[in-house]
Amino acid sequence: PFFDAALHARGEVEVDPIARAHLARMYGTDHHRVLDVVADDPSLGARISARPEIADIGAQVVVAVVDEGALTLTDIIDRRLALGTLGHVTATEVDRVAAIAGPLLGWSGEESAQRAAAEVDRRVAIERVWRARRAVS
What was the pLDDT predicted at 136? Predict the structure, then answer.
């Protein structure tokens, strides 16, 4: 019943049904906070990733920064979104998160790009270690 209600809540806000169900799972009864952000800026209803298994939307980044106090791309991606828990995060996905979070955090366009590049480099280094350990096992 809750998920059915979540799929129909704020029907005027355009968010695809899979993303709506995802929001209900991630935020429970607070999923309306994310829908409110999309109501204010419909572009934030778009998914962050082109991968069908990733249902995170841009408004979640806003909620992570504004409501939850996230200050870094790592915090947003790995702790506030499903994105960071579902395997490899692409540079495009990191860039999309940075483009939304940067202005909210007071970063210039250049600083957002630098932070995104550093986050991608960090993830590549972690994946390299993971692959090396896996090869040894």
Answer: 83
